Amino acid sequence: MRCIINTNMIADIPWDLERLKKTPQVEWLNRKGTVHSLLYEGEPFKGDCATQVFAYYASPGTLNANPELDRDLPAIVLVHGGGGTAFDQWARKWAADGYAAIAMDLNGGRPKGGTFSNSGPAMDHPNIFHAMDSSRDQHWCYHGVANVIRAHSLIRSFPEVDDGRTAITGISWGGFLTCIVSGLDDRFKAAIPVYGCGYIHENGPWLPEFEVMTDEHRNQWIKMYDPSQYLGYCNTPIFFVNGTNDFAYLPDIYDQSYCLVKGKRNFQITLEMGHGHQQGWAPKEIEMFVSQYLTDGTPLPVIHSPTAYPDHRLVASVSTKTELLSANLHYTKDTGPYPERMWDTVRVEIADNIIVSNIVTDQKHISILTVTDERNAVVSSQFMFSVHT
């Protein structure tokens, strides 16, 4: 697939990054219990005063009612997707693993209290796609990115947090935002977009939204808000997590997106992975990847780009600090819509951290390699495409 790197400097971006990297004002709503709640300063909406963003915060100290546990903590920013909100269980999950965690609401409200008077735009198609004839303070994408960066600035300011050890993960639209933010906010040490990617104007379920835009608005939206404009500037180690049959972030645009990243990349592309928040935060490899960069955890294996040979062999080397137990080739010969394609799996040889597959590659339209290590951690290669996909 084509991989086009935008070599121009980011210019005329909608956000004032210097301002967003300052600590926002915060109002604590509840500092009792295992997960605390707060409001922090957001961007102005429709020319009015600054909005407020609801968020949950959890740490080892809040979970155990013991502030002594909160010293020099690594921290993570948790970004929900469509139909979601700030999830207290998500923050609790990361706090149980030893992290300070902040999970904000990007839908102009709060989980149990609905909207409030000084909230931002709702997370819906009119605000996401069809507000380009209005000022940027009415664009959901503008607020979404800004509020994620502000959440990062806020959690880095907490005295219990080591501001040099922070990460971000987002699911679906949250993964979309994570792709943008990873190219803008260089303070993160690890990023994990789940499902999300760029080039959504080229393929996927939102094509009808772009088809009804004027050319001017469509081009403006792409320039301002598509992750393809920002991933090329991502120097943060990034772990792309997706499914082979995802309905939204399809293999072709997914491939174009991760090819933009010039820094460290890893992948977990899973056969028929479900699309949802709980499915998106479930893979244990996400925490393993974060730990690799924030707490000196054992790195995940990395499958390097496979090489196809004329005799049909497919060979890939694997960098690993752990023992590899098995390797598989997953492939589809189907040519229909990506979400409907059927995939097959075959065991392949792995020896001395070299994967060798003798399956005839020209019969496969798309394939991936996966390895499983001694921790039962699974990573994949990037997608491999035949000429005709």
Structural write-up:
By secondary structure, this protein is of the alpha+beta class. It has two domains: 17-294, Alpha/Beta hydrolase fold, catalytic domain (Rossmann fold, 3-Layer(aba) Sandwich); 302-385, Sandwich (Immunoglobulin-like), CATH 2.60.40. It is built from eleven helices and 20 strands. It has a nine-stranded mixed β-sheet, with helices on both faces. Strands 12, 13, 14, 15, 16, 17, 18, 19 and 20 form a nine-stranded antiparallel β-sheet that branches. It has a two-stranded antiparallel sheet with strand order 6-7. Strand 2 (36-44) and strand 3 form a beta hairpin. Helix 5 packs across helix 6 (173-184). The longest helix is centred in the middle third of the chain and has 18 residues, at 140-157. The radius of gyration is 21 Å and the shape is globular. The N and C termini lie close together (9 Å).
Largest sheet: 9 strands, mixed
Name the CATH homologous superfamily of the largest domain. Alpha/Beta hydrolase fold, catalytic domain
What is the class of the largest domain in the CATH system?
A: Alpha Beta
Round the mean pLDDT to the nearest integer and report it. Answer: 94
Give the overall silhouette.
globular
End-to-end Cα distance: 9 Å
Question: What is the β-strand count?
Answer: 20
Largest beta sheet: strand ordering:
1-2-3-5-4-8-9-10-11
> Which percent band covers the strand fraction?
25-35%
Number of helices: 11
Q: Could you say which structural class the secondary elements and strand pairing correspond to?
A: alpha+beta
Enter the CATH topology name of the largest domain. Rossmann fold
